[in-house]
Amino acid sequence: MSKNRLIYLPLGGAGEIGMNMYLYGYGPEGAERYILVDVGVTFPDMDTTPGVDLIMADADYIIQRADRLEGIIITHAHEDHIGAIGLLYPKLQAPIYCRPFTAAIAQNKMERDGNDPKKVQECAPWPAMVEVGPFQIGFVPISHSIPEASALVIDSPAGRIFHTGDFKTDPSPLVGEAFDPDLIASVAKGGVKALMCDSTNVFSPNPGRSEASLKEDIGKLMAEAEGMIVATTFASNVARLKTLAQAAKDAGRSVIVAGRAMNTMIQTAVSTGVLTDFPPVLDVEDFGDVPRRNLLVLATGSQGERRAATAGLARGKYRGIELQKGDTYLFSSKTIPGNERSISHIYNQLAEQGVNVIDADDGHYHVSGHANRPDLVQMHDLINADVVIPMHGEYRHLREHAELVESNGGTALIAKNGVMVDLTHQAKVVEQIEVGRTYLDGTVLIGNMDGIVRERLQMALRGHMVVSLVLEEDGTPIDGAWIEAVGMPDESRHQNGLIENLERAVDDTMETATRKMLRSDEAIEDAVSRVVQKVCSDTVGKKPVVTVMINRLVTE
Amino acid sequence: MSKNRLIYLPLGGAGEIGMNMYLYGYGPEGAERYILVDVGVTFPDMDTTPGVDLIMADADYIIQRADRLEGIIITHAHEDHIGAIGLLYPKLQAPIYCRPFTAAIAQNKMERDGNDPKKVQECAPWPAMVEVGPFQIGFVPISHSIPEASALVIDSPAGRIFHTGDFKTDPSPLVGEAFDPDLIASVAKGGVKALMCDSTNVFSPNPGRSEASLKEDIGKLMAEAEGMIVATTFASNVARLKTLAQAAKDAGRSVIVAGRAMNTMIQTAVSTGVLTDFPPVLDVEDFGDVPRRNLLVLATGSQGERRAATAGLARGKYRGIELQKGDTYLFSSKTIPGNERSISHIYNQLAEQGVNVIDADDGHYHVSGHANRPDLVQMHDLINADVVIPMHGEYRHLREHAELVESNGGTALIAKNGVMVDLTHQAKVVEQIEVGRTYLDGTVLIGNMDGIVRERLQMALRGHMVVSLVLEEDGTPIDGAWIEAVGMPDESRHQNGLIENLERAVDDTMETATRKMLRSDEAIEDAVSRVVQKVCSDTVGKKPVVTVMINRLVTE
Question: Which of A11, A77, A554, B51 could be stapled to A57 by a disulfide with Cβ–Cβ 3.0 to 4.6 Å?
Answer without folding.
Answer: A11
